[in-house]
Design a protein that fits this description.
By secondary structure, the protein is mainly beta. The chain is built from one helix and seven strands. It has one domain. Helix content is about 5%, strand content about 40%. Strands 1-2-3-4 form a four-stranded antiparallel sheet, with no helix packed on it. It has a three-stranded antiparallel sheet with strand order 5-6-7.
Length: about 90
């Protein structure tokens, strides 16, 4: 038995434990108790790359999550662009 989470994700209850998987190729990404996004391929780019006519702030990035087996797009999110970590101590 499966339960659809989105157009491209589903939960397979037949396995023990239940797994979140790609609905296209059935590749298991994670247990339902874990974050499936850590198993997905991630591409991060400027929001304007997806919408060329949109002047987007560089403060935001578009993250795209894809199945590592069949490359189906699983999810997208717009997030604050990663801030570089400031290194403290050590030689300069």
């Amino acid at each position: 038995m499966t339960k659809r989470l989105s157009e491209s994700l589903e939960v397979a209850h037949a396995s023990a434990p239940p797994m979140i998987r790609c609905s296209r190729c059935k590749h298991a990404l994670s247990k339902v108790t874990e974050d499936w996004k850590t198993a997905a391929l991630v591409r991060e780019r400027a929001v304007s790359a997806a919408v060329p006519l949109m002047r987007a702030s560089k403060r935001f990035s578009l993250r795209e999550f894809a199945c590592p087996r069949c490359l189906t797009l699983l999810d997208t999110e717009i997030v604050f662009t990663k801030v570089r970590r400031i290194q403290t101590g050590g030689s300069r």
